[in-house]
Design goal:
The chain contains one helix and no strands. It has one helix at about 1-60. The longest helix is centred in the middle third of the chain and has 61 residues, at about 1-60.
Length: about 60
């Protein structure tokens, strides 16, 4: 009887450890998303500036 209870407790403990690990992994996801978002925003900003520079250059050339 004790062996069965010990086995059950061991299974529960392993499940808890697994859940802790998953929880830690999920906590880092928002930080990763923020980093990706910042990087994307910076790239978009650079593209906008480049487009404005091209537009300005065309205006200087053709007007």
């Amino acid at each position: 009887m004790k062996e069965i209870e010990n086995e059950k407790l061991s299974i529960i403990y392993n499940e808890l450890e697994s859940e802790k690990e998953i929880s830690l992994q999920l906590k880092t996801i928002p930080q990763e998303i923020k980093l990706i978002e910042r990087s994307t925003q910076q790239k978009l900003q650079k593209i906008k500036v480049d487009v404005l520079n091209i537009d300005f250059s065309f205006r200087e050339i053709f007007y």
